[in-house]
Design a protein that fits this description.
CATH class of chain B: Alpha Beta
Largest interface: A-B, 28 and 18 residues
Shape of chain A: globular
CATH architecture of chain A: Alpha-Beta Complex
Structural class of chain A: alpha+beta
Number of domains of chain A: 1
CATH superfamily of chain B: Beta-grasp domain
Order of helices and strands of chain A: EHEEEEHEEEHEEH
Strand content of chain A: 35-45%
CATH topology of chain A: Aldehyde Oxidoreductase, domain 3
Strand order of the largest sheet of chain B: 2-1-7-4-5
Strand order of the largest sheet of chain A: 1-6-8-2
Number of domains of chain B: 1
CATH architecture of chain B: Roll
Radius of gyration of chain B: 12 Å
CATH topology of chain B: Ubiquitin-like (UB roll)
Number of strands of chain A: 10
Strand content of chain B: 25-35%
Oligomer: heterodimer
Number of helices of chain A: 4
Helix content of chain A: 25-40%
Distance between the termini of chain A: 24 Å
Radius of gyration of chain A: 16 Å
Number of strands of chain B: 7
Distance between the termini of chain B: 30 Å
Structural class of chain B: alpha+beta
Shape of chain B: globular
Largest sheet of chain A: 4 strands, mixed
Largest sheet of chain B: 5 strands, mixed
CATH class of chain A: Alpha Beta
Chain lengths: 149, 82
C-alpha cells in the first residue's frame, strides 16, 4: 500500500508487473493511467507544470484511503502522481488496485480519481507555444464528488 | 504565522509564503484584509483569483475559521489534480 508523489516519469508496465507479482493471490488487479493531452481548446500544449502542496496532499490522501478501505474490500494499492513539468502523452497518474473481486477494485479507483480531481492539493498549468494558463476546476468534477458523498 | 500561497495566487502575489505575527486569534478574512493593505500585488491577487480555498495545518476550512500564531495557513485556488 504505497503512495508516491514524484517528478520522475515512470513505466506503467514495470510498476504493474511488480505489483502483480506481489499480489499473486488476488482475484483482480486493475490499473488506471492519467495522461497529458496534446491539445486543449484547440491549443497545442508544450508541457504542463504541476505544483503541489505535498504535506497536505499526503495527509489528505491517507485520510481518503482510510475511508475508501472501509468502504471497499481491497487487498493492496499503488498510487503514483507526478508533479513538475510533464509533456503531452506522458503519464501523470497511476493507480493500481488488487482485490478479491473486480467490482471493489473498479469502485475504489473511480471514487479515488473523482476525489483527486477536486481535493488533492495539486495545481496544473498548461504551457502553450506563446502563453500559459492555469487549469480551472471543472464544475462537472465537483458535482460528481458531491453526488457520491 | 506562516502563510502559504499556491498556483495563480502565488503568481499574482509574487512569492510563495509570508510570515506574520498574530497576537490574538484572528479570522482568515481578517488576515486577508491585512494582507491586501500591503501592496497592489496582494490586492490584485485577492480580488481577481476567485473561489479561493483555505487550509489550516493541512485541513480544509472556511474563511470564517480562526487562526493563531502557531498555525500554518494555506490559501489557494480550487485544485486540479488527478
Amino acid at each position: 500500500m504505497k503512495i508516491f508523489f514524484q517528478k520522475e516519469s515512470f513505466l506503467v508496465e514495470e510498476k504493474f508487473k511488480k505489483f502483480s507479482k506481489t499480489n499473486s493471490t488476488a482475484g483482480s488487479i486493475i490499473s488506471f493511467v492519467g495522461k497529458v493531452r496534446p491539445t486543449n481548446n484547440k491549443k497545442s500544449i508544450t508541457n504542463i507544470e504541476i505544483e503541489i502542496y505535498e504535506k497536505m496532499a499526503l495527509l489528505q490522501m491517507k485520510k481518503i484511503i482510510f475511508k475508501l478501505k472501509k468502504k471497499y474490500k481491497i487487498l493492496d494499492f499503488l498510487i503514483v502522481h507526478r508533479f513538475g513539468k510533464v509533456k503531452p502523452q506522458e503519464n501523470i497518474l497511476l493507480v493500481i488496485v488488487a482485490s478479491e473481486h473486480r467490482k471493489e477494485g473498479f469502485r475504489f479507483i473511480e471514487d479515488l480519481v473523482d476525489w483527486l480531481k477536486v481535493k488533492i492539493t495539486f495545481w496544473k498549468k498548461e504551457n502553450y507555444l506563446n502563453d500559459s494558463e492555469w487549469i480551472e476546476q471543472k464544475e462537472s468534477d465537483k458535482k460528481i464528488l458531491i453526488t457520491s458523498n | 504565522m506562516k502563510i502559504l500561497y499556491f498556483a495563480k495566487l502565488k503568481q499574482y502575489i509574487g512569492k510563495n509564503s509570508d510570515f506574520i505575527e498574530i497576537k490574538d486569534n484572528k479570522r482568515i478574512y481578517e488576515v486577508i484584509d491585512e494582507l491586501k493593505k500591503r501592496n497592489k500585488n496582494y490586492r490584485k491577487a485577492f480580488n481577481e483569483v476567485t473561489n479561493l480555498q483555505y487550509a489550516v495545518n493541512c485541513e480544509y476550512v472556511n474563511i470564517e475559521e480562526t487562526v493563531k500564531d502557531k498555525d500554518e495557513l494555506a490559501i489557494f485556488p480550487p485544485v486540479t489534480g488527478g
